[in-house]
Amino acid sequence: MAIDPEFERTRERADDHDGHAVWGPVDEPEQLGIHGAHVAVDFDICIGDGACLEDCPVDVFDWVDTPDHPESEKKADPVREGQCIDCMLCVDVCPVDAVDVDPGRENRI
Ligand code: F3S
Ligand code: F3S
Ligand code: ZN
């Protein structure tokens, strides 16, 4: 299952985290929702592969620890989504389609 690119419509804004939005449902530690807006990562799909972190030319992502999450114990968090230059590498390299990037989606924090 890939990230839902319509998450702004289909999900409720649940929280903020490190300068970006979190879209629920959130029920820690098993269910963590989607982090980010312009650059969005579905934490419940991410398996901690790391290709997005390694390949992003402007270093948008940092690791965040997610102990006891069923898919992986770390996730790529789009902490610098405002720096994204829309190269789409992260979308292309993620093996589980956990990332969606949309220049029309603004960080609304
Ligand atoms: Fe980086 Fe992905 Fe944007 S690789 S530049 S966050 S489209
Ligand atoms: Fe996660 Fe995909 Fe990045 S699995 S760490 S979002 S490449
Ligand atoms: Zn986050």
* Radius of gyration of CA atoms, rounded to a whole number: 12 Å
Structural class from helices and strands? alpha+beta
Number of helices, where a helix is a run of at least 4 consecutive DSSP H or I residues: 3
In the CATH hierarchy, the third-tier topology is known as: Alpha-Beta Plaits
Q: Please state how the strands of the largest beta sheet are arranged side by side.
A: 1-2-3-4-7
Query: Into how many domains do the coordinates divide?
Result: 1
Summarize the structure in short.
With 109 residues, this protein is α+β, with helices and mostly antiparallel strands.
Structure in words:
The chain is of the alpha+beta class and 109 residues long. It has one domain (7-108): Alpha-Beta Plaits, CATH 3.30.70. Helices cover 13% and strands 24% of the residues. It has helices spanning 7-10, 51-55, 89-93, and strands spanning 13-17, 20-23, 34-35, 39-42, 62-65, 74-77, 99-101. It has a five-stranded antiparallel sheet, with no helix packed on it. A hairpin with an 8-residue loop joins strand 5 (62-65) and strand 6 (74-77). The chain starts with 6 loop residues before the first helix and ends in an 8-residue tail after the last strand. The model has no long low-confidence stretch (mean pLDDT 96). Zinc ion binds at residues 17-18, 20, 35, 77.
Q: Keywords, please?
A:
single chain, 109 residues, alpha+beta, Alpha-Beta Plaits, five-stranded antiparallel sheet, 13% helix, 24% strand, globular, binds FE3-S4 cluster, binds zinc ion
Set down the secondary structure blueprint.
Blueprint: H1 7-10, E1 13-17, E2 20-23, E3 34-35, E4 39-42, H2 51-55, E5 62-65, E6 74-77, H3 89-93, E7 99-101
Antiparallel strand pairs: 1-2, 2-3, 3-4, 4-7, 5-6
The site of one FE3-S4 cluster (F3S) has 14 residues, from helix 3.
